[in-house]
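Cross-check.
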Amino acid sequence: MSFVLPELPYIKNGLEPHISDETVNFHYGAHHKTYVTNLNNLVKGTENEHKTIEEIIKTTTGPVFNNAAQCWNHTFYWHSLSPNGGGDPDGAIRDAINKNWGSVVSFKEEFSQAATGQFGSGWAWLVLKKDGTLAITTTSNAATPITTDDKPLLTCDVWEHAYYIDYRNARRKYIEAFWNVVNWKFANENLAKSS
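Predicted model, tokenized:
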């Protein structure tokens, strides 16, 4: 079994003007694609060759883990965005956010602070905890919540390659733009599957 670069759930310029076609071309077409290529090369002829990507993430370390987790994280990230996204959440995710943070505004502020404050490369996540509450977490490099009991609902990639073309080193501006394309429908679907 070989891993393939999954199709984007929208056209490459679909997130403009918030995330440019050029950024998506490099981020998806170069970075994400390279992780897939590397993973295939690393697992070929090994005991990992016929495992699912989730099984590989949960049972490996080093380069195999890094490339598998980056493949998974990036696919999850692309679905966390939508050309029809932004605005305020509705449904169960809105109710859960309001229960945990008091308001969507407070949640966005805390999530933005976590994403901005993540030192170096990594990810900011909205997750469902084992006790049924929501939480904001961050992970470094390729680390991912799927190696824990947390269920990821939404993520924001804060590696520089996610924003440098559009925003240079202004991570906060990129995170502000993220809220214009955030896919609340995807978060609601993940919450329904995880609850």
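Residues 88 and 104 are 7 Å apart (CA to CA). Helices lie at 21-43, 53-59, 62-79, 91-101, 104-117, 164-167, 171-181, 184-194. Passed to J.P. for a second look.
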